[in-house]
Write a structure and sequence with these properties.
Elements lengths: L1 E2 L5 E2 L5 H15 L3 E6 L2 H15 L6 E4 L8 E3 L12 E7 L6 H8 L2 E11 L2 H4 L5 H6 L12 H12 L3 E5 L4 E4 L26 H5 L4 H10 L7 E7 L5 H14 L3 E5 L7 H14 L2 E5 L4 E4 L4 E4 L2 H9 L5 E4 L7 H6 L5 E7 L9 H12 L3 E7 L10 H9 L9 H4 L8 E5 L1 H6 L1 H14 L5 H9 L3 E8 L2 E12 L3 H8 L8 H9 L9 E10 L8 H13 L5 E7 L2 H9 L3 E9 L6 E8 L2 H22 L8 H9 L11 H11 L9 H13 L8 H12 L4 H7 L5 H19 L2 H8 L3
Parallel strand pairs: 3-7, 3-8, 4-5, 4-6, 6-7, 10-16, 10-17, 11-14, 11-15, 15-16, 21-22
Antiparallel strand pairs: 1-2, 8-9, 12-13, 13-14, 18-19, 19-20, 20-21, 22-24, 23-24
The structure holds acetyl coenzyme *A and adenosine-5'-triphosphate.
Length: 762
Amino acid sequence: MTRSGDGARRPDTLDSESLAAARRDEAMATNQRRLLVFAGDRDAGIDAAFDVVRGADVPDDEVTFVTSREGFRFERLDPRHASSLLGTTRTVVVLDAHESFSPNALGRVAGAVDGGGLLVLLTPSLDEWASHRDSFDERLAVPPFGVDDVAGRFRARLVSTLRDHPGVALVDLENQTVERDGSYTQGISFETPVPSIPRDADRRFPRRAYEDCLTADQSDALSALEALRRTGQAVVVEADRGRGKSSAAGLAAGSLAAEGRTVVVTAPDERNAAEVFVRAERLLSTLGTLADGSADDYHLSATTGGCISYVPPTEAGAAAASAETDALVVDEAAALPVRLLESFLDTPAVAFCTTVRGYEGAGRGFAVRFRDRLDDSDHDVSSVRLADPIRYAAGDPVESWAFRALLLDARPPVDQLVADATPETVSYRTLTPDDLLADEHRLREAFGLLVLAHYRTEPDDLARLLDAPNLTLRALTHDGRIVSVALLAREGGLDAETRRHMYDGGRIRGNMLPDVFTSQLRDEDAGVPVGYRVMRIATHHAVRSSGLGSRLLSEIRAEFETDADYLGVGFGATPELLSFWRENDYGCVHLSTTRNDTSGEYSALMLHPLSDLGRELHDRHADWFCDRIGDVLGDALSDLDPDVARAALAAADTDYDADLSAYEWRVVVGASYGPGLYTTAPGAFRRLALAHLTSPGRASLSARAERLLVRKVLQTRPWPDVADELDFHSTAQAMRALGDAYEPLVDEYGGDAAREERDRFL
Ligand SMILES: CC(=O)SCCNC(=O)CCNC(=O)[C@H](O)C(C)(C)COP(=O)(O)OP(=O)(O)OC[C@H]1O[C@@H](n2cnc3c(N)ncnc32)[C@H](O)[C@@H]1OP(=O)(O)O
Ligand SMILES: Nc1ncnc2c1ncn2[C@@H]1O[C@H](COP(=O)(O)OP(=O)(O)OP(=O)(O)O)[C@@H](O)[C@H]1O
C-alpha cells in the first residue's frame, strides 16, 4: 500500500472485489454511498462491475445495470429508460458511460442508490474520455457542423470532479491500478430531529402512521397530507431525492384507505410509485385492516371498504374525477407533462410529490409552468418541504458530487446583488464555454438562471452549452453579476442536398426553425438563410419587467446584424411571452398544431429579419400564416386559449386584406347593424375577424369581444359553450354581442358601399 496525494490509501495493484468490499463497508457504516469509477476498456469495465457486486456482497435483485448492452443476470435498463429509476431505491447501480453517455441519465440514476450502496461508473480511459466521441456527441453535431466540431469540455470537467471529489474511487483498467481508492471517513453527520407524534386531538390519521415516520420532516409532511381528507384541498410535497416524500404519501394513502376512502395513485411509471404502496401496505397490515392485494400488484384494499390503486397518468385524471374517488396521489409529479398535471385538478383532493430541483432529469415543468396554475385553481393549496435525508445520510459524497458535476444546485446571484440592475447599469458580454469553464462561479450563475427560469433546462443542456458547436451564450452583467442570459443556436445556411432531404421528409438535427418551415410548411428554400434562434432567454426574477430582456435582445440584434439573416424563436406560447417578443419586433409566423409534451402549450415561432433574405423569409411566412390560420383555428387549434390566439395574431407582422366582395359586405352589415345572420356566410366574418385581430389597434374592440371572435368565428365553437365560457346570460345575448362586435369593423374596414348599406339601418 502507498499513500496517494489526497491522503487516501492506494493499493498498488487492482483488486476490484476488495476495493468494493471496503467502500461498501464504509458506506454501510455511515449510511452514505460511494462512487466507483472503472476507466478503460468497456468489457474489462463490465467484468469489474461484476467483481464489485461480488465484493460488495449484494443480492442480484438489488443491482441495476444501465447499459445498451444485453445479457446480464441483473436488472438491465437501456440508458434511454433511466427515468424509470426515479424514486426507486437500489443497492448498486452500474452506469455504462461507454456508449451514448448522457448527463440526464447520470442525474436520474444517482439519486436511486441507497445509503450503504454503490454507484459504479464505467468510462473510457479518463485521459481520453474528453476526446472520445459517441452517439450523444452526434446529437450535438448539428448540420452544417460535424461530430469533429463537438468539444469535450463537459467530460473534461466531469473527469476533474472525479479526480478530486471525496468518496470517489478511481480505477485505471489499462494499467490495472487504483488511482484513488475513494476512502472517505470524515463524513459530516447531522443529527436528524426525532419525529414527534401529534397529540390525539391534533391528528386525524392513525397514531401508527406517525410512528412509522423516520424523520420529523416526514411526520410534518404526513400531518400536512391529512388535508386530503377534505375536498377542495391540494398538498404539494417537495424535497430533494430520498427525503421520504413518497413514503409519506404512502402512509397518508394507507391512513385514508384505513378510514374507508378510495385513493388513486399515479406516477410516470408504476415503478416510480412503488414506495407509496410498500408503505401503505405495511401500515394497513399493522393496523389489521389489509383485506386484499399487495404492493407488488399496485392495488390494496382495506377491510373498511377503502382501497388504493395505481392508474397510469393518462387515465388518472378521469379515474380521480369519478364519484368513487376521494383522493389522488401524484408521485414524481415533476416528470409529468403540465397538461396531464392540469387534468388532475378535477379531483376532490390531490397530493403532488415532486423534487425541488426536478432539473436532475425529471423536468421543471411543475415548478416553472404548473405551480402558478395550481395556485390559481379552485383548490386550497398547502406546501410542505422535507429537508432531512432518509435514503442516505446527510453529507453523502455521491450526492454532493452529482450536484457539483451536473450543477444541480446552481443558483442565480442572490437578489440583493442584482436588485439595482437597470438597462443603464448593465454590460453586454459573450460568455464563451472556455470562460465559463475557467470561472466556475460564473458558470453556476449563468446556468442557475437558465435552470430556474426554464422548465426545459436539464443536465444534457450543460453538455450542450459547453460542447455544441452551434450554440453560443450572451448575457447582461451588473457589477459583474449575471442578470439576464440568452442561449442562441445557429441555424440554416444549409446546402441544397440537406434542404432537399428535409423537404422530402428526412430529419436533420437542430435547425428547428428551418426544419419546421421546410418539412411542415413546405418551403424548400427556408434553410438557405442563416439565423440565430434564441433557444432560451431568462432575466433574474428580482429584476424582471425592468427592460433587461429587451435590452439583451437589442444588443444581440446589433451584434448579429451583419452576420445573420434573421433572429428567431420558438416557445410554448402564452399571451405574455407573445407580447414580449412582439414588443421586441419579432413577428409570429407559425403556431404548432400539437401541444408540447412538457409544457402542455402550443408553440409559437417568430422571426425578426436582419437582411433582405431574412426579410423575404419572414414576409412570405407571415403572409402564409395569416392565410391559413383561420382554417387551422377551426380545426387543429380549436382548443387554443383565445388569449393566446389574440396575442399570436396581434404579433403577426403583415397587412392582411379581408378582401370581402360587395355581397359579403351586405351580409356582414346585415348581421351587425341590421337583421341578418352570421351563419349565412361565416367565411366573410372569419376574414374580417382576422383583419382586425392582426391589426387590433385599428378598430376598438373589448378583450371579451375579441375572444368572441376567436371562439365563435375562428374556432367555430357551439354557441352554448361560447356563451357559457364568456359569461353571457344566454346564447341570444352572445349572438347579439357578436353582431355588435362587427359594427366597429364595418366602420373601419367597410368601403363606401358597406357604409351606404349600414346607413340604411341607422
Ligand atoms: C425561447 C424562450 O426562452 S421563451 C421563454 C422566455 N423565458 C421565460 O419565460 C423565463 C422566465 N421569464 C423571464 O426570464 C423574463 O420574464 C423574460 C426573459 C421573458 C423577459 O425578460 P424581462 O427582463 O422581464 O423583459 P423586459 O423587462 O424587457 O420586458 C418585460 C415585458 O415582457 C412581457 N412579459 C414576458 N413574460 C412575462 C410574464 N411571464 N409575465 C408578465 N409579463 C411578461 C411583458 O409585456 C413585460 O412588460 P411589462 O412588465 O411592462 O408588463
Ligand atoms: N417511514 C419510512 N419507513 C421506512 N422506510 C422509509 C420511510 N421513509 C422513507 N423510507 C425509505 O427511504 C428511501 C427514500 O424514501 P422515498 O422513496 O419515500 O423518498 P423520496 O423523497 O420520495 O425519494 P425520491 O425523490 O427518490 O422519490 C426509500 O428506500 C424508503 O423505503
